[in-house]
Amino acid sequence: MTHILACIDGSNFSASVCDHAAWVAMRLDAPVSVVHVIDKRENQVVTSDLSGNLGLSDHEHLLEEYTALDEQRGRLAQKRGRLILDEALERVRSAGVSDVVARQRQGSLVDTITDLESETSLIVIGKRGASADAAAQHLGSNLERVVRAVHKPILVTTSEFKPIRRFLIAYDGGRSMRRAIVRLAHTALLTGLECRILTVSDNEDAARREIEEVIGPLVRAGF
């Protein structure tokens, strides 16, 4: 059975990711996998040569301290990750989803999602991550890499979940958008919600014809 994959990192967006994943799971009757990835690079101590004129024994002792500090940071990162996952599980379950599991991985977020993509039907990820909370006008760097790397639908969340009652299709007539329309027509995720279609064109008649072509399949699908 395919899962809804909810990617959290403990940032301000994690609660919203959980809420959106629960909303999707309830509409699709699908299980949720909540994943937290520990990026080793963020927890490693910089080990550039700081020994100066230290002797060999002093240098070895310094390296031992660096190693011990790396191990301590690794343990703390794992403990923090488990706490984040426990909170996420409780939040998703409290929204009515009973089939939810937690996964903690080490490595990169992109590699983790790529590994889990075959058993995933939809990926839920925050607009920004822990390192970009203050950059209110920018998308997170991980988000762009994920979008480029995977081939499954991605739901990008804002910082706060609000009941979803309508959705907007920004239609440009391209092949990818036509595929998106077909996917929409064959999924229950947005069924029953108000649909709005927006297109921008210098030729109003041509734009109307294109929109009418889009409306037909959606109306037949129950929108």
What does this protein look like?
The protein is an alpha/beta fold and 223 residues long. It contains seven helices and seven strands. A five-stranded parallel sheet has the order 3-2-1-4-5, sandwiched between helices. Strands 6-7 form a two-stranded parallel ribbon. Helix 1 crosses helix 3 and helix 4 runs parallel beside helix 5 (141-149). The radius of gyration is 22 Å and the shape is elongated. The two termini are 27 Å apart. 22% of the residues are buried. The mean pLDDT is 85.
Topology (elements, then pairings):
Elements: E1 3-8, H1 14-28, E2 32-38, H2 40-43, H3 56-94, E3 100-106, H4 109-116, E4 120-126, H5 141-149, E5 154-157, E6 166-170, H6 175-185, E7 194-198, H7 204-220
Parallel strand pairs: 1-2, 1-4, 2-3, 4-5, 6-7
Helix pairs in contact: 1-3, 4-5, 6-7
Most strands sheet: 5 strands, parallel
Low-confidence stretches: none
Beta-strand residue percentage = 15-25%
Helix/strand order, N-terminal first: EHEHHEHEHEEHEH
The number of helical segments is: 7
Radius of gyration of CA atoms, rounded to a whole number: 22 Å
Strand order across the largest sheet: 3-2-1-4-5
- Mean of the pLDDT scores? 85
C-alpha termini separation: 27 Å
Helix content: 40-55%
> Based on DSSP secondary structure assignment, what is the total number of beta strands?
7
Derived structural class? alpha/beta
General form: elongated
